[in-house]
Amino acid sequence: MSSSALDAVPSDLECSSRLAGLQLTQAAGILLRLPQEIIAQAMVVFTRFYLGPEGGSFRISSAKVCESSNSKCLKNNLVLISSSEPQTPRSVCSVYAYLTSDNVRKSFDKPATCDPSSYYLSEGDYYSTRSILLQTECIILRTLSFDVKIVTPHHLAMTYLQTLGVFQAEPSSKSRAVAARTLAQLNLALFSPQLLYVTNQPIALAVAAIYLASREVGVKLPGNEWWEVFDVEREDLGFLVVAMRSCEAWIRAEKEKWLDRPCPLDIGELEVELKRRGQDSDG
Asked: Is the pLDDT reported for residue 171 higher than 90?
């Protein structure tokens, strides 16, 4: 049981808030022009922080750090700032200020035109947010016992494709398509409600993504049970394939669920949603 569940946050609302935070993290990484592997590491750290009874709670952890709208999102900067392509605190704070502005949140999946003053960070706001960022990093490190090393399956998947002979001396259109779909499946799995990156080994994730990609593109891989070469059991592969296939439909359902109101990203918005649900049940 998670800390959020212990604080009476419904499981569906916990999943929705986690998805919103992960989407925000990915968008920030793209705007900061970071490699997908680093973005994936930040997303996994975000997911791990809110797991278990000793982890962070969507209902109280952000309030303990500060009362700003993007305090919860700043948790990912531990990876963004300390990665192989470090970002300055000012860049990170500016990007999150933009992404959490009202107009951008209302049109998150399409181009937004908004007044620059709505996301402008004054010097005072910047230093305040940077202080929050540093405090939040300390909380993450303590909660995760300073274990923030993340191994992602992206490079493994490309190596396995080469081992399986998908990449020839001159890559064909199909081999490129398999590689692209493999990476797409791995990126989509980061949002899975089954928390695939936390509950499964990178090797298994890479193999499952290759399996799905080869089926989608129509590329036949050598051998009947080639996944055993990478020490992945049929049962584990089957579970991951089903979970990855269902992820896109689940995200689409979540998007439709929050069409009329924003998904909670901070403690204030979460309390409003819990109050609304309470009134609905009373009515």
From this structure: no
- Could you please report the per-residue DSSP string of 191-241? T-TT-HHHHS-HHHHHHHHHHHHHHHHTPPPSSSSGGGGGT--HHHHHHHH
How do residues 79-103 score in pLDDT, each as one tens digit?
Answer: 544 556 677 788 888 888 888 777 6
Of 34, 149, 146, the residue nearest 87 (C-alpha):
34
Q: Is residue 15 exposed (0-12), middle (13-18) or buried (19+ Cβ within 10 Å)? A: middle
Which of 100 and 253 is assigned the larger pLDDT? 253
DSSP secondary structure string, 130-190? HHHHHHHHHHHHHHTTT------SHHHHHHHHHHTT-S-SS--HHHHHHHHHHHHHHHHHT
* Predicted TM-score (pTM) of this structure: 0.84
Tokens standing for 82? 């300390």
